[in-house]
Prior knowledge:
The protein has helices at residues 11-26, 41-49, 55-61, 73-81, 101-121, 137-150, 173-182, 198-202, 206-224, 227-230, 249-254, 256-259, 267-270, 283-293, 310-320, 326-341; strands at residues 32-37, 39-40, 65-66, 86-90, 126-130, 155-159, 161-162, 165-166, 185-189, 235-238, 275-277, 298-299. It is α/β, with parallel strands linked by helices. 48% of the residues lie in helices and 12% in strands. It contains 16 helices and twelve strands. Strand 4 (86-90), helix 5 and strand 5 (126-130) form a beta-alpha-beta unit. Helix 5 (101-121) packs parallel to helix 6. The protein has a single domain, classed as Metal-dependent hydrolases (TIM Barrel), CATH 3.20.20.140.
Amino acid sequence: MYTRDCPGANPRVRVIGQQFHQVQRGRVPVRIDVHAHYFPVEYLDRLDRYGGNQATLFIRKAKLASADFRDLENHFRNMDLARVDMQVLSVSSQLPYFANENEAVDAARLANDIYARVVREHPKRFAAFACTPLPHIAASIDEMRRALDDLGMAGVTAGTMVLEKSIADSAFDGFFAELNRRKAILFIHPTGGSVGSQLIESTNLTWPIGAPLEDTVCMLQFMQANIPIRFPDIKIILPHLGGFAPFLTARLDQLKGRFLPGSSVLPSIQAKYFWYDSVNGNPSALRCTQEAVGSDRLLLGTDYPFWRDDAFKLCVDYVSEAGLSAADVDRILGGNAERLLGLTS
């Protein structure tokens, strides 16, 4: 049996470990996709009822929504195409963030209940990150408890921004304190806000450039808020190879004094506190991140269903084609996720 490498392993993690026991016995490398999405129509309808953003319209028009929890055939087809054993699903970037607390709680509970049902129906193929009704801290902690303890979800997801406030803002310290107490996983995702840049939005660059810029800014704001020191036990996953940050490592170190206190640890060292998913597709970008933070901090991600079919397969295959050692490839494709999720013996 495999259990989480921290006290109080929840039942869901133990179940996942048992599922992989057979694979582990023969030591066939597993592939675990930590960055995948599932957008049930029922949940999108709830967001729209409460005045959600226009992104739900895009999800529908692009045929990325699922009719109900049984509508997963495209997931299975893509996973089988790229030999992905398990996906960890999240509702990012369609998060239930509303000023009205009752609306935020209702939407978050609906999403988590739907996701928990999907996992129960297909426990060998899916795990899930829970959403919470931020910016409402007490309600978010309550829903985190329900999702992790009662529903057995694998971790929590949050946006880089919450109603135009950075997730690194001190207003969310209570949320981070609870994550830290639990030694929980926190999967970060862009919200599509282009860090407030009208230029990026007006030129249709929100997702090509704005999203990785959100990742980069969020990472640096975490450093400014001293998150790695204050909350050392949270396991924070940054998407898209951390945006532009690995490419800028030397520059960030050189200019540390411009955005961090003089006594702060170098950004290149703080960067190794985080985990990074591999959504990118460019072998040189993967090698750059591997050199910056090490292979043990990299996780397979596909951003399904935004990357699907040939693009989905590319997102998986490029990891093996980047010129890394076989051991590093195995770690990135699944070994590191096993360790992070608490599946290793």
